[in-house]
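Before going further, learn to read the protein records used in this course. A complete example follows; check for yourself that the lines match position by position.
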Amino acid sequence: MTTSAKSVRGLGAAGAGTQHHIRQRVTAVALLFLVPWFIYSIIHACKAGYEGAQTWVAQPLNAILLILTLSAALYHMRLGMQVVIEDYIAKSGTRQALLILNTFAVIALAAATILSVLKIWFTAGA
């Protein structure tokens, strides 16, 4: 049975379905704008060679947008994989292990990519 308070708060059967749905849609909208910029910029940065790509990443606007793109893409991936794991993995222990692995993998990837961009950005002038 569903109480009226639960209906008003927008909580689904798992307790946070609406919040998960909104986060997935927000990251999708963000990626709708960031990915075309990313593809266009990467194509032009790569035409200039390795040094040109480093110079491109070292520009503050490009570095910030690159970090935002990577962060949004990784978080969107985490949310999507969470849904797949929750829907298709029947064993509770395996499901929990995969959800934890999913989160740690995204944190590791985010840390590596963000630190790489920041290193290029901050060491460009040195």
